[in-house]
Amino acid sequence: MENVSVPDGSLPVCNSSEDFYSLTSGNRSDLNCTVPSEFYLYADLYILIPIIYSVICAVGLTGNTAVIYVILKAPRMKTVTNMFILNLAIADDLFTLVLPINIAEHLLHHWPFGEVLCKVILSIDHYNIFSSISFLTVMSIDRYLVVLATVRSKRMPYRTYRAAKIISLCVWLLVILVVMPFTVFAGVYVNPHDERKSCVLSFPSPERLWFKASRIYTLILGFAIPVSTICILYTMMLYKLRNMRLNSNAKALDKAKKKVTIMVFIVLAVCLFCWTPFHLSTIVALTTDLTTTPLLIGISYFITSLSYANSCLNPFLYAFLDDSFRKAFKKMLECKPA
């Protein structure tokens, strides 16, 4: 359904699934439409969403900061895999730091923070989409190389902590380049009807074409390519391990390497669980035309909250799946007398 003009000649009302998706996902584009006032009358959503976001912010900030502290302070934690986990935690921490601003905007129903902060917030919001899956892709490549070297009984002299630092820096720079178009288009839009300000992606005309292009861009670079790469790597990894057991007298992966590989796999699975609905909603927005209903509104906010929740889950996975992390966490919490 196309946008419907209101009788008084003000801006058209956001009424299609594409419009509402763009306004609730946190990755919003200016489609020259306004949210109907009755959307703000859903008291449950108005109260529940800030509570959920606040919990994600508090838990994510605490957990990821603890991960960063443990890796930086404990000498035994300075491994290649933990370097990638460190950068993943930094990216999640960065996102949770700005989440209170999203909460404030939700409660105020307008953007009072200015143009510069709008660009920063929307950039970090999009960075959250690309950074997690990028570092998980790198971690999967690293796991595949470790398995491959083990199967062939070869050493990996190039796999060093310093090399992991350089690769992590390259990932940061790559994601910055990917997010740059969103930074350019981010801006404050003032509704001429009620002068309400919104922090959105203000695309040039035709807005709908640019909106669809941005969603396809995000879907391909933030999901399709990295997830396909990861699936291929893990399929090849399992195939080689199976052949190693059946066709070779070589020893299986030692216990420590098995645990690290399993941890990376579970962290990846949780990431896909949290982000797949978000990217599926992109496909829905691009291919269907659903009328906005209270149910659709609730689903949209649930999908957004689920994707945000990924930023606070990883520290718990490390604590449960990795003995060294668990011991380091416990040591950090110990109160030692002066």
UniProtKB/TrEMBL annotation:
User: Where is it located?
Assistant: Cell membrane
Specify the protein's topology with respect to the membrane: Multi-pass membrane protein
KW Phosphoprotein (keyword) present: no
InterPro entries for this protein:
GPCR_Rhodpsn, GPCR_Rhodpsn_7TM, Neuropept_B/W_rcpt
Q: Which UniProt keywords apply?
A: Cell membrane, Disulfide bond, G-protein coupled receptor, Glycoprotein, Membrane, Receptor, Transducer, Transmembrane, Transmembrane helix
Pfam families, per database record: 7tm_1 (PF00001)
Q: Which GO terms describe its cellular component?
A: neuron projection; plasma membrane
Asked if Cell membrane is a keyword of the record, the answer is: yes
G-protein coupled receptors family 1 profile domain: which residues?
A: 63-318
Example GO molecular function term?
neuropeptide receptor activity
- Highest taxon listed in the record's lineage: Eukaryota
Entry-linked CDD domains: 7tmA_NPBWR
**Principal localization?**
membrane
Q: Which residues form the signal peptide?
A: none
**PROSITE patterns assigned:** G_PROTEIN_RECEP_F1_1, G_PROTEIN_RECEP_F1_2
According to the record, the segments passing through the membrane are 45-72, 84-103, 129-151, 163-190, 216-239, 260-278, 298-321
Would you identify the family this protein belongs to, as annotated? Belongs to the G-protein coupled receptor 1 family.
What is this protein called in UniProt?
G-protein coupled receptors family 1 profile domain-containing protein
Its ancestry begins with:
Eukaryota, Metazoa, Chordata, Craniata, Vertebrata
